[in-house]
Amino acid sequence: MASAPRLLLVLLAAAAAAVGPCAGGRVDLWPMPASVARGAQTLLVSKGLELSTAGSGYADGKGVLKEAFRRMVAVVELDHVINGSYPRGSPVLAGVRVVVRSPSDELNFGVDESYKLSVPTTGNPLYAQIEAQTVYGALHALETFSQLCTFDFNARLIELHSAPWTILDKPRFPYRGLLIDTSRHYLPVPVIKSVIDSMTFSKLNVLHWHIVDEESFPLQIPSYPKLWNGAYSYSERYTIDDAIDIVQYAEQRGVNVLAEIDVPGHALSWGVGYPSLWPSATCKEPLDVSSDFTFQVINGILSDFSKIFKFKFVHLGGDEVNTSCWSATPRIKSWLIQHGMNESDAYRYFVLRAQKIAISHGYDIINWEETFNNFGDKLDRKTVVHNWLGSGVAEKVVAAGLRCIVSNQDKWYLDHLDATWEGFYMNEPLTNIYNPEQQKLILGGEVCMWGEHIDASDIQQTIWPRAAAAAVLRYTQLQRVYYRMKHLRSASRLHI
């Protein structure tokens, strides 16, 4: 059976073929670039399409560009045999010339992802031209180029329609995320990589890895090696080398990995290896707020994280905290009284202390919105509030001067199977935010693939194509693409 990303490519290709690359004057690119100009000529694409980097300031020491070009060609060919004959005098595109100005391949948050893609109709040899400030803009350009190409089943050649093309593009938001959850169902490393592959087709750039939760703790933590005793089984674990491999695989594709540990709630699995993290043997959540050992463990985890996850942010959760175990446990209740705290005070104390630890390891922090709803004025100014409960929160967050990521569950939770692609598509992150300075505080949005009912067998077909609808709003302005999503939905009968 073909891999999930390959089947997703089949879906996207079928959707494009359903209306033609530019049928009826339409431009079928996903997400729609910022500026598009095109002609009416059809080019043939050489069987031996070449990559040229003449004039580029980027040395490609890690092979980021070379490998991206190889993947692009595979996407275009879709494993077809390209063995047709070129008609005499037909214009043939010999290759793609890529000029990257910056020599750096550091995937920092907010990296320039803009590009210019030109496909001329004259030249000898005839080359498409990509210009980008960074290699990550060039990766997006290659993705767009692949969408211009279609396989002609009669000619058995690759065609590129509606040339010449001039496309100018840059993303609307710097944060365009997808959450996966390996705590509710373990996802093998190849499956995680397949999700990363599929993200690039819609130019998503952050994989939010919800690694642990109350159900399981699958990741090796060298500082506290018994933590992964909380994994589902001996084999359902990720080593440090696995995590490094996933991060490097994602970076090669222009995707940052955001790691999450959810504290103080959603942490029952931590106590399997270290029972002293539980308030008591009969009341196991949230983590013990009264114990310095709790924060030593968090410090150890984040210290180990800092060697693996180089993204600017770490996610510390903070949602759905039922604090009743703290008052129900006599020693913790005594600690609360001694420190003049009630349960709500202790919740705030825990979140803020965990934030300080993360900052000490060089991270900015992301917390779920309950932290803002309960004590937003006390959060560190490096906090990004992750909206998930519903609408109306983002505008309050930015009015308070904090940054925000939008994932409201009524629209952008992929595990809500009754949530339609139309709802994903119409969910505008800047709703009711009109001040330009406040709009800048919306970093972007994220669709969430929670894992209670999703595993390796169905994660891809549950993510797509609805995630592609949401990707539009995070990459570009709302576009008139209803007909294209209809074809994506129809093509989903291919059963990714």
From TrEMBL:
Pfam families: Glyco_hydro_20, Glycohydro_20b2. Residues 1-24 form the signal peptide. SUPFAM superfamilies: (Trans)glycosidases, beta-N-acetylhexosaminidase-like domain. It catalyses: Hydrolysis of terminal non-reducing N-acetyl-D-hexosamine residues in N-acetyl-beta-D-hexosaminides. The keyword Zinc-finger does not apply. Residues 29-148 form the Beta-hexosaminidase eukaryotic type N-terminal domain. GO terms for molecular function: beta-N-acetylhexosaminidase activity. Its EC number is 3.2.1.52. Residues 173-471 form the Glycoside hydrolase family 20 catalytic domain. The active site is at E320 (proton donor). Belongs to the glycosyl hydrolase 20 family. This is Beta-hexosaminidase. It comes from Urochloa decumbens.
